[in-house]
Design brief:
This protein is an alpha/beta fold. It has a single domain, classed as Vaccinia Virus protein VP39 (Rossmann fold), CATH 3.40.50.150. The protein is 21% helix and 20% strand. Strands 3, 4, 5, 6, 7, 10, 11 and 12 form an eight-stranded mixed sheet that branches. A two-stranded antiparallel sheet has the order 1-2. A hairpin with a 3-residue loop joins strand 8 and strand 9. The chain starts with 11 loop residues before the first helix and ends with a strand. The protein binds S-adenosylmethionine (SAM). S-adenosylmethionine binds next to loops.
């Protein structure tokens, strides 16, 4: 099976040259970053800010599942928005479902692995959910199933975006008026397509579906990404985050 390279990446130290010759690669070090202080406010989840860093994935889902995301961000969003019904149509290893069980929330959880195509309008009820957690494939960065309906199996970017548009419209139709949809997406690149700004396309498609963004972008630090351990010959600026964007369906 043809697989595609993961994010372009690198250790620039191995690839760079200065006039003085190659730059020696320094030994890897752990870096500590001083984050800006957040203003105090009435949020029930004060540590939920535009910069999300939680190296602890929480006890939700399975870390070994490809593309698994830690459940703590989902838990924090649910505690902030306080929905009672949640749609989780690309559940993977069930991370969102497990968070909902923990918080005592009703959750519709499905995946193409169970033959439920989230892009099909008949897959789940309409105007039923207060909140949707959507964590789609970052196009072909990881392949999930052999099913041709799988977003990660779309051959071209255009074909991916057509399916992605259907997915967003479909999930928006599942929300009650005033409901929220959080989409976690990362930009993608490979040799064939170059840099593909999937976070931009996410917003464009969501706006076209009639949704509005209702809070700051949440930049999630990619702790524990498998590409961190690779060494690349090419030079590039590594992407160390993905972005969670929260949208709202207008009340009328
Ligand atoms: C990034 S993974 C989600 C991982 C999940 N958040 C977790 O923590 O385990 C994307 C999921 O989308 C599913 N998927 C891809 N295309 C789909 C489709 N058309 N309908 C439903 N699920 C789909 C894949 O099977 C995969 O489980």
């Amino acid at each position: 099976m043809k697989t595609h390279s993961t994010r372009t990446p690198v250790n620039p130290h191995y690839a760079s040259r200065s006039r003085a010759g190659p730059i020696a690669a320094p030994a890897p070090t752990v870096q500590y970053v001083k984050l800006p202080l957040a203003p105090r406010n009435a949020s029930p989840v004060p540590h939920l800010t535009s910069l999300y860093h939680n190296p602890d994935p929480g006890r939700y889902g399975k870390r070994s599942y490809p593309g698994n995301c830690g459940g703590n961000l989902i838990r924090d969003l649910l505690r902030y928005y306080q929905p009672t019904t949640v749609l989780d149509p690309m559940t993977g290893s069930g991370t969102c479902r497990d968070v909902c069980t923990d918080l005592g929330l009703l959750c519709w959880s499905s995946d193409l692995h169970e033959q439920v195509d989230a892009c099909s309008p008949n897959s789940f009820p309409r105007e039923r959910f207060d909140f949707c957690w959507l964590h789609p494939p970052y196009w072909r960065q990881k392949l999930y199933t052999e099913d041709p309906r799988d977003l990660s199996r779309t051959e071209t970017l255009e074909a991916f975006l057509v399916r992605y548009q259907k997915l967003i419209e479909n999930c928006a139709a599942g929300l009650v008026p005033g409901g929220r949809m959080a989409i976690l997406m990362g930009d993608y690149s490979d040799r064939e397509s170059g840099f593909v700004p999937l976070v931009y396309h996410t917003k464009r498609l969501a706006f076209e579906a009639g949704l509005r963004q209702c809070c700051t972008d949440i930049v999630r630090f990619s702790h524990g990404a498998s590409s961190n351990r690779k060494v690349y010959r090419s030079a590039f600026i590594p992407g160390l985050h993905d972005v969670c964007t929260v949208f709202e369906k207008p009340s009328q």
